[in-house]
């Protein structure tokens, strides 16, 4: 007989637990970018920043920690300049390729 599990007993999934190295981060962001959803990409950048350490990313990007949290909310209208600063602080570079 199969044991039933209550949903309330399940732990909440946190992607940051799986973003342990640069390869995992790059693959995660690439998958999210394929969806063509800017809000999800901003959310993914926030996930990566949390995995790497929000305080360290804030310092490296020149943003306050609070500003970084605000900028990486999926509902924010983050400027491209901020995205580039955050990517640079995380050791990432956005590139293009043909579709």
UniProtKB/TrEMBL annotation:
InterPro entries hit by this protein: HI1420, Lambda_DNA-bd_dom_sf
Protein name: Addiction module antidote protein
UniProt cross-references to NCBIfam families, sorted A to Z: dnstrm_HI1420
Pfam families, A to Z: dnstrm_HI1420
Chain segments annotated as coiled-coil in the UniProt record: none
Molecular function (Gene Ontology), one example: DNA binding
């Amino acid at each position: 007989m199969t044991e039933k599990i209550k949903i309330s007993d399940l732990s909440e999934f946190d992607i940051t637990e799986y973003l342990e190295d640069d390869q995992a981060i790059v693959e995660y962001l690439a998958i999210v970018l394929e969806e063509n959803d800017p809000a999800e990409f901003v959310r993914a950048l926030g996930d990566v920043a949390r995995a790497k350490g929000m305080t360290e990313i804030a310092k490296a990007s020149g943003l306050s920690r609070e500003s970084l949290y605000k900028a990486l909310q999926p509902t924010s209208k983050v400027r491209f300049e901020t995205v580039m600063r955050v990517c640079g602080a995380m050791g990432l570079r956005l590139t293009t390729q043909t579709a």
